[in-house]
Amino acid sequence: MAGTAAAGGRPPRVSMQEHMAIDVSPGPIRPIRLISHYFPHFYPLTEPTLHPPDQRPAAASTIRSAPQPQPDPEPERDSDDSTALATLEFTLLFDADNSALHCTAHRAKGLKPLASGSVDTYVKANLLPGNSKASQLRTRTIRGTRVPVWEETLTYHGFTRQDAVCKTLRLCVCEDPWLRRRRRAPPLGELQVPLRKLVPNRARSFNIYLEKRRLVSGAGAQGGAQGPGIFLHLQEEVETEVAWEEHGCVLLSLCYSSQRGGLLVGVLRCVHLAPMDANGYSDPFVCLFLHPNAGKKSKFKTSVRRKTLNPEFNEEFFYSGPREELAQKTLLVSVWDYDLGTADDFIGGVQLGSHASGERLRHWLECLGHSDHRLELWHPLDSKPVQLSN
User: Fold this and answer.
1) 371: Cα separation from own chain's centroid
2) The pTM is what?
3) Bigger pLDDT: 243 vs 280
4) CA 248 – CA 250 distance, rounded (Å)
5) Burial grade of 51 (CB within 10 A; 0-12, 13-18, 19 or more)
6) Residue 43: how many CA atoms within 13 Å on its side-chain side?
7) Which pLDDT does position 193 carry in this prediction?
8) CA angle, 326 as apex, 325 and 329 as ends, to 5°?
9) pLDDT at residue 110, as a whole number
């Protein structure tokens, strides 16, 4: 009967049990291939392993695409909160015989420029306490490098043992504002070296970390323009007061000439003068007056040096007279600021002679006691002119 039904065109009936017994599985399940497998991969360290499509599930763990190498992490950099910025190599020499301080700036390492790209830097030096412009010296600018090498010596003339005891040298590595819009950009780093530990006539080398200029908070009239809140600004140069007030120094040379029969007075240079003009500088000149002595021959004046606080004159003047008479007289040396159309401003002065004391008296007596012997000595200037009676 079953054969008759099949011959009649009817489909055979299959029970549920027989249907489940038929193996209809198409085969092992293969992983779905990614489109990236059809394109070559080029890795500098590893190469991806491509397996044939008839790989069995037992090796499914090996058909994964090769792991891509992770990019190298960025090199560790110092945080902005860190105070150590870079190192500065320099050498200090206190030349006690010539009353000079020599600072040789060698190189800097590890600078972090404020602007991206190359950096143009120079070293600025200041003696503290004192007038910042009068004691400010700087090296030349080294362009296009973060490891600048200067190898340049900055010299402070008129640096005495008293200065070495109470003064500090501040060195700043600054970015040249030639290509910057900001004129007063903060320095890349600075440091301060107390000079009291320097041994006279012996060079000492340093390799010190630079530090940031500290930021302080304050409020004032400028806060109204930017809001009532507290604003941050760069701390200005804080100069501690000293027991004696500084008005500058003058280097004088005295020599009694036996051949000419008189006194030769040389005005060599001045340092650290007080600024008298609105631009922060002065136009200094030096006046000499031998008292008592009538006539124009007792007064002399040097030429004017424009816009400087450390003028160099190298001018010499002659006062005729026997040694005995000169010993009873007084030499007044005064430094003035030249002003066109108005009265000149007094900067400072010094008195040499028998009525003086200390180094001033010793300079005068040694000059007159040794003929044809030139003696040079630095003298600090007084803030008030000397009043002499007739």
Assistant:
1) 47
2) 0.63
3) 280
4) 7
5) middle
6) 13
7) 94
8) 100
9) 86
Nearest to 59 by CA among 68, 69, 50: 50
Cβ-count burial of 210 within 10 angstroms (0-12 exposed, 13-18 middle, 19+ buried)?
buried
| 316: confidence class by pLDDT, cuts 50, 70, 90 | very high
Contacts of 141 (CB under 8 A, 6+ apart): 120, 121, 122, 176, 178
pLDDT attached to residue 389: 54
Of residues 178 and 341, more confidence is placed in 341
Cβ count within 10 A of residue 289? 17
Place of tokens 């136009």: 283
Backbone angles phi, psi at 380, to 5 degrees: -70, 145
Q: 21: exposed, middle or buried (C-beta count within 10 Å: 0-12, 13-18, 19+)?
A: exposed
- Residue 212: per-residue pLDDT: 81
pLDDT of residue 288: 95
pLDDT band at 254 (very low <50, low <70, confident <90, very high): very high
Give the residue from 164, 165, 87, 130 showing the smallest Cα distance to 237. Answer: 130
Beta bridge partners of 262: 257, 320
Assess whether the previous peptide bond of 129 is cis (omega < 30° from 0). Answer: yes
Cα-Cα-Cα-Cα dihedral sign, residues 126, 129, 133, 134: negative
Please give the C-alpha separations between residue 153 and each of 281, 287, 369, in angstroms, as whole numbers: 24, 32, 38
The number of residues in the chain equals 390
